[in-house]
Amino acid sequence: MSDSGGTPQLVWDACVEHSELVFRVHDQVSWQRDRRLESGARGLTIPLADGLTRTLLALSLYARSNDVAAATGRHLTGDELAGLPLLPLVAEQRRHYELFTGLETVTLDPVRSHLVGILKLLTYEQPGHGALMLARLGADVHIVVVRLTDRYRNAGLAVGDLRAVADGATGDAPAVEQPRREARGPRVRGGRWRPGVDRRGRGS
Fold it and tell me: Region (Disordered): which ranges (predicted)?
């Protein structure tokens, strides 16, 4: 992608590309990917929740470029967006309707247009339920960034830092400890766990 422009369309395309990169690197750790998809499906299908969180991050990046354009008269380039620290970006307390500013000047692909339409519906037409759902989606985006920040031990982690990982061979991601299993009942004959049964096989 050319970085010479910084036009609204180039900026939006870069935001989508950067968002996809963030999620691609996050999902290199399979159990974190599974947790993300499971937790994001509350009241939504997994593909829809996945698409909405990715789009929400792209919108957050685009909103930051709009902030810069309002102050300086020029949008950020793709490389400048890639240098933004992700953690402060997703921690911003921004009104959801602000995320859609300037989108009328860009062309969205059909899938992204549909996802943005759903986010707008949640923002404008379902203020109670919508606000809760948007908060959950935003929290899921925040968790993704926090995990990456912890994984690479970099509080200022930016999209640019993730490019080499995404472009490299599988396994570039450092080992991440598996979550501990939930406590279970005592072990009985045969090596299986049965909650509520003591070691002699009697019910508790």
Answer: 170-204
160, 83 in Cβ contact below 8 A? yes
> Within a 10 A sphere around the Cβ of 200, how many other Cβ atoms?
8
Predicted confidence (pLDDT) per residue in 71-128, tens digit: 999 999 999 999 999 999 999 988 999 999 999 999 999 999 999 999 999 999 877 8
Q: What are residue 193's DSSP bridge partners?
A: 187
How far separated are the first and last CA of the chain, in Å rounded? Answer: 65
Distance of alpha carbon 52 from alpha carbon 50, whole angstroms: 6
pLDDT at 192 over 50: no
Residue 196's alpha-carbon distances to 182, 192, 199, 202, in angstroms, are 15, 12, 10, 9
Give the pLDDT band of residue 168 (cuts 50, 70, 90): low
